Amino acid sequence: MIKNYSNIVAIELGIKEKQVDAVIALIEEGGTVPFIARYRKEATGSLDEVAIANIRDRVEQLKELDKRREAILKSIDEQGKLTPELSAKINEAQTMSVLEDIYLPYKPKRKTRASMAREKGLEPLADIILLQKSIDLTREAVHYVDAEKGVANVEEALQGARDIIAEKINEDAEIRAKVRKIFMSDGIIKSRVIKGKETEAVKYKDYFEWEESISKVASHRLLAMRRGEKEMFLSLDIAPNEEDIFLVIENEYLLGSNACSEQVEIAIKDAYKRLLKPSIETEVRIETKKMADLEAIGVFKDNLKQLLLSAPLGAKNVLALDPGFRTGCKLVCLDRQGKLLHYETIFPNEPQKNTRQSAAVLLAMCEKYQIEAISIGNGTAARETESFVKSVGLPKEILVVMVNESGASIYSASDTAREEFPELDLTVRGSVSIGRRLMDPLAELVKIDPKSIGVGQYQHDVDQHALKQGLDDVVVSCVNKVGVEVNTASKELLSYVSGLGSALAKNIVEYRNANGPFSSREALKKVPRLGDKVFEQAAGFLRIKNAKNPLDNSGVHPETYKIVEAMSRDIDASIEALIAEKDLRKSVKLEKYISDTIGLPTLKDIMDELEKPGRDPRERFEVLEFDDNVHTMEDLKVGMVLNGLVTNVTNFGAFVDIGVHQDGLVHKSHLADRFVENPADFVKVQQKVKVTVLEVDIPRKRISLSMKSDPFGEKPKASKQEKREKKEQRAQKASEGTMEDKLAELRNRFK
Length: 751
Fold this sequence. Notes:
By secondary structure, the chain is α/β, with parallel strands linked by helices. The protein is built from 31 helices and 15 strands.
């Protein structure tokens, strides 16, 4: 049985065993990934969050493997078939597939053709055939003909024996391992449209007649084909060359060339087609699906991280608009903390077109609530609303920003929104979300199920448990990377802080509401159920502005405050001075403060925090201006160069918002002048880009874009032979056509 998880994980991840030991111990003590990565660098050798999460997840997998191992050992032992050799083999298995292959012959089964043949007493005949000696097989088989047992003739006896041999081949662990390897390395996945569904399945047209190596298929193509199969538009098959499989099995089971060997050869083909292929194909489907899921989840995680960490405008008085035509634009005014001050509806767009009245309301609200920025959702009527807002004569200092509203409708109908605004209409709640997203995307987006934010790739097709785990890790990482102002944060945001969770987040908010703002981190210990262990995990990620101790508004953990105090004493300066003056910080000799538990990594982190206490690690906010002449797809022309904002990155390219209510696709072949294998290495969600329009397909709502410096490129010059052939074709066409055709041809030639 696997017990030394650290050794296995260390080898797999290419790190030291003591690092893995430290992570496992810290997690078992209740440590969270962000806390361990940030405040236990000496113990882990400065492993980052990704490595720590990988250790956590792999150890859980190994524990599951051991759990299954124990169940298998118990099952075989209860059958009275567990030998020391078999036990050792089971305990040495390091993957679930190897473990299941060993268990297969002992696994309780429903009735099979082989089990029925055994009941008829045909197993001895199967054993004789497997020896493949030169015997009179018909004469031997006659001994097993027994009408009472259901064996009517020699052929039925031989058929039963072949069924037993086929099952033995199928349950041979070594054969299964070899066949599995061939499937994974040489298997071909074939997709075909189901006859009669060509019209319904048009969105899967690319896969009507498709095949490629299963080892090279891109995750997005595999998931697309599987979805087409699930919707019963496509049929899929995965298999390598049959002859390669037969050769592998024959090398193990075919011993000669006689009557018995002929029976074995028939059994081999039956074993593969009836038993092995369906079984191994299912395994390969599961395994490749897992790999595709991991890749798709990885894409989603990267996109979500970029979105959550996108630049915040900060604490500003914001007027937010949820655009619309017939139902109008929902307008809300928010103060610098995001509190709702006012809401109403204006109708600046078709069909009402009350621009004068709408402009008067807008200007009045801007003046009354001292609006500093206007946030406009990028949904229906977004560009029309933006044009209206920019036309009313706003003061120049008021920013007008288009905000991605994906998921706002999900938030507006959520329990969180109902709890916050129980009396308000869904559309007003959505407008509030649009405004707050501008001020602080992270604080607002944590209230929405990440799957609804619109930055994923086949997110509804992947393993939902793995997706949730992965996305939760990203949200937790982002929240703790930025830090949370404890006196203004919502309970949703607080719930993602290391060590807290929803119950304690609620307790913090209730305590804050009842007793006023927290004056120090130490005061957090007064919150019900917030004990020492939780405080240890959470305190470093919580910020308290204007606290008496300036370290309470930094990433310095309270457990190391004494070190900073010692530094300030040693240089005869206050902590405030140490924070404010670079020369004072330079005078500190870090080596002096190294101890058994605190090393240079932590000391360097402390100095970094003293340099920029409480500073937001996110980029500075910049406004993106869309082209004022382009509002709809109909306005687009091939060759246009436009500003755009990356909204989603996939394995095959990036989707870009160019302000026409329909994202365009930059295929990875057009992301750069050089070859780009992985789009996520080149572009990020929320990145501002310049794109060229390549193609506009209005009926299918598709826009093709390019980020190349010369997207259309120079056409290669035709050779002399090609020119001669084209000239002859033109002459032939001109001689065959009418005079009008000839004139048209001449005009085209001399344009």
